[in-house]
Design goal:
The structure holds two protein chains of two kinds. In chain A, 45% of the residues lie in helices and 15% in strands. Chain A is of the alpha/beta class. Chain A has two domains: 214 residues, Periplasmic binding protein-like II (D-Maltodextrin-Binding Protein, domain 2, 3-Layer(aba) Sandwich); 100 residues, Periplasmic binding protein-like II (D-Maltodextrin-Binding Protein, domain 2, 3-Layer(aba) Sandwich), CATH 3.40.190. The termini of chain A are far apart. Chain B folds into three domains: 37 residues; 186 residues, MetI-like (MetI-like fold); 64 residues. In chain B, the strands form three sheets. Chain B has a four-stranded antiparallel beta sheet. In chain B, strands 4-5 form a two-stranded antiparallel sheet. In chain B, strands 6-7 form a two-stranded antiparallel ribbon. Chain B is globular and about 95 Å long. The chains are: A alpha/beta, B alpha+beta. Chains A and B meet through α1, α6, α8, α10 and β10 of A and α1, α4 and α10 of B.
Amino acid sequence: MKRQLLIVLVGALAMILAACGGQTPQAPASPAPADTSAPAAPADTSAPAQPEATEAPPATTAPPAGGVTEQPTAGGRIQTILTRGELICGVNQVLPGFGNVDSAGEFSGFDVDFCRAVAAALFDDPTAVQFRPLTAQERFTAVQTGEVDVLIRNTTWTLTRDGSVGLDFGPVTFYDGQGMMVRIDSGIETLEDMEGATICVQSGTTTELNLADNFRAIGVNFTPQVFEDADQTAAAYDAGQCDGFTTDKSGLVSYQTKLAVPADHKILDVTMSKEPLGPSVLQGDAQWADAINWIVLATIQAEEFGITSENIGDFLTSDNPDIRRFLGVEGELGQGVGLPNDFAARIISSVGNYEEIYNQNLGPETPFNLPRGQNALYTDGGLLYSPPFR
Amino acid sequence: MATAAPPVQKTTIPFWRDTRILAVLFQVLFVIIVVGVLWFFYTTMMAGLRQANLLPSFAFLSQPASFSIGESVIAYDPSNTYGYALLIGVLNTIRVAVAGVILATIIGIMLGISRLSENWLLRNVATVYVEIVRNVPLLLQLFMWLALTQTFPRQQDSISIFGLIYLHNRGVTMAWPETGSDFGAWVPWLWLGLLAGIAFYVVRRIQFARRDRPGVAMPQAFLLAGAVVTIGYLFVGLTKGEWPLTLSVPELERFNFVGGIGLTPGFAALLIGLVIYTSVFIGEIVRSGIQAVNKGQREAARALGLTPGQTLRLVIFPQALRIMIPPMTSQYLNLTKNSSLAVAVGYPDLFSIAGTTLNQTGQTVPVIMMVMAAYLTVSLVTSLFMNWYNKRIQLVER
């Protein structure tokens, strides 16, 4: 009897502790209503700044209640990152040229450099970033749950992802298209030659859908071999378990360098889809999305101005008001999107402009030697165009 | 409680020391806390989802999936719906689980018996096998099997076994019966054979019961059914000039084998991996079950003149089975749940297809809920069946 009572008392103690544990999360929950009213003031102060960020009006046309609850988090993400002291960036780790881990454990690549650019803009320190390698299938959940602040992982901008998947995309960093790699000795020249073939594809990608769509459109039957891991997909193709391997063309170029005998393979001269790749953040945080937008645009604008990490010193003393504003020497451009005014200067001096990022990872001196093509400035016949910084 | 507190007489103890009241009180408190915590998680989740404009909805289930699936038990096309694609996933999971459970049980029983064998070599080989397999993580083993499939030659130079079975790095292709145009004429014969077999079995059973003697009727019943079906096969074949069932021999076309039946490397790797891994645990359960049977039983059986094989089959095993069934059930459930590692080796099981679905639709919460419900259902059905079987073979006390 006595022992029973003891057990009950121990249980009670445990439950009281549990109750305390249960109440602590409730504590922030009860001030929550107060919270929504308190930030109403900051929300108002930031309101004048909002119209400058062109996309604010449609965001605020959402039901006012929703708008109010959105505001605290709008300031939230950047604030969270600044408090944390580093950016968490979702990247690829197995795609050389875009996101890859080298033998020393260092991340490198085109997408990785954009992560560093964001870190540089926020902290003036391109190393203040924690890379979170994600598979194609994990990536959206990681953004949805807030595990990563921003996803820069060769991710195609589509309506579904912008809408029902719940992402907000920044400007396109790389214009790509889906291609198909085959063995030269297979004699395949076009997709129509592939009747009955087995094709390796990575799950959770737009390429998986485009593959089905394209082959359905031309009435060719195929067997997909789907892997979650990109490296395994390539390995299965390399071992001859598939006749074709499909992903973005830049990815194919990248993987070709990893195959056992790269010269035995070729990339077919067909483009199966448009694949605009860009950074994305969780929907509902307009300020953070704006910040990412203008960080990417700053690299493009810098190339247009001809500002590089080497000659930026000369430009800081420039008399051109456009350049002075852009580099934050005068004016308060950055503040409007929640960034320091000299964010562009920080990016350029520590990471470089778009051309530098491109050449370092994909340019002529790399194994990929990808021509700029559509990824050139609009002045050079490409598609890169930055809205004015003013 | 209010009524309990006022009549504080010296005979009654205060309620905070009354264990009966306290017990109820704590239970109520516990339920409130659990519900509260769950509610807190739920509201937090919904608030987060609402903010991201991602409110859960099952509307996607009726939209076209538009991705392809490598292998399916029933016909599938990218224009089918997400709901149908998930069904394919469930069927693929059940396919590998059923095949895995059967094979793992057979291999496991052989392993368990080998572990207790008098033969030194057999016993030690089995021990080494068990210790190696159960101490290496399953995922690693799956990768190993997948890597092994990649070392097979390409299809053009497949290893051919009598031209009927081909081994290559895209799996196994083998000859398989194919229904001819006269298959319909043979179907009545199949039914006739089945009926004859059942009728024979029932009649014999009644006979045995009348005479109150044990007897065996099953083998003869099978023989009879087989004979009827074979006669029907020959009859249809000879009268119509075409066999109702023919052997489809695989032939290599430009990219893949056509005809016959194929096992993909993903399925093969997953099945082999699961079977090898689970059979080891089943082997240990069998061994412990056999060892748990009283030594006297074995001695008594030997004293009666039964051979070691008969002793095991007729005396030891039926008793060991009662001990083995409950842990065996857990192993079957483990195998089913472990099949969700299929995505690693490229087999489109439920988890793999669900992953694609949630990735394409963004409906993480509903999809995950559905996957959990599907695994729960499969597991509960397995559990129910095993519990029923367990009850059936339990010792009947008289």
